[in-house]
Amino acid sequence: MTGGDALLADLQARLGDFRGRLTANAPMEKVTWFRVGGPADLLAMPADEEDLALLLAAIPVDIPVRVVGIGSNLMVRDGGIPGVVIRLSAKGFGSVERVGETRLRAGTACPDKRLAAAALDAGLAGFHFYHGIPGSVGGALRMNAGANGVETRERVVEVHALGRDGRRHVLTNEEMGYAYRHSSADTDLIFTGAVFEGPSGDPSDIQAKMDEVQHHRETVQPVKEKTGGSTFKNPEGTSAWKEIDKAGCRGLMVGDAQMSEMHCNFMINTGTASAHDLETLGETVRRRVHENSGILLEWEIKRIGEFEPGREVEPFLGTVDDPSVEGR
């Protein structure tokens, strides 16, 4: 019996009324947009918030728990993920509804693009940037996702979450501790939904901004490739792609992993790249940029899981593990 099978059997014995799905040794390459990564010991998909609370209360405290979204900015390492990976379902956590003249409530499995569409329908401005982010609300909340000069923190009123013990929490905007592509909210909290607010706007103006976002994304980003979006955060005072380009890394390859020729802050899997290839490429870029300009790029892609034995990737002046629990 594998570790995943044993964990499945143990949780099934504890979860008499669980209505969701539990999968042992779940292949994570089917989840990530990079299409790489080893298996998760156990992948859990609770049916709704009540089901999630039941699951969390049943997981022993010594078992690690990770949360993933739709996998659009996530790299799972080739050795897989120990413990339990929780993926919130669109059916149980993907709703979005108007809850006031200027407010929307969305579940964390709601795609960012759907949140933008709901805001358009409600005549609420300031959500157009979500139209171009290929992730879900949960990841946007965790990493303060932003684009086109707007960030998630500008729209958030409150965030709903469950702790590892299954208890419910409500966090204010201030308690989320937002900074550039970062939230300092407790990483043990699993976000389940949030209330957003935006000013009233003219639907034609909102649609025009969404169209601009879509046009920009389709013309300058490799959206049809196996990619994870922006690989590195923009350093203060410059853009990551400019520094990558100046360091001669546009088109740089390690195996089938490549920094896109179209947008060199996008890493792509051109064929059968492994997570090892992708992470090695990223660390090579970080080193070359630092040698060229003295700038130390920070990963925006969320990297989770373990390396295969003997195939570890040495980080360049940084930590191996990303502390974020949640990827988009």
TrEMBL record:
A Gene Ontology term for the protein's cellular component: cytosol
Subcellular location field: Cytoplasm
Any single GO BP term: cell wall organization
GO molecular function: FAD binding; UDP-N-acetylmuramate dehydrogenase activity
Family: Belongs to the MurB family.
Described function: Cell wall formation.
Protein name: UDP-N-acetylenolpyruvoylglucosamine reductase
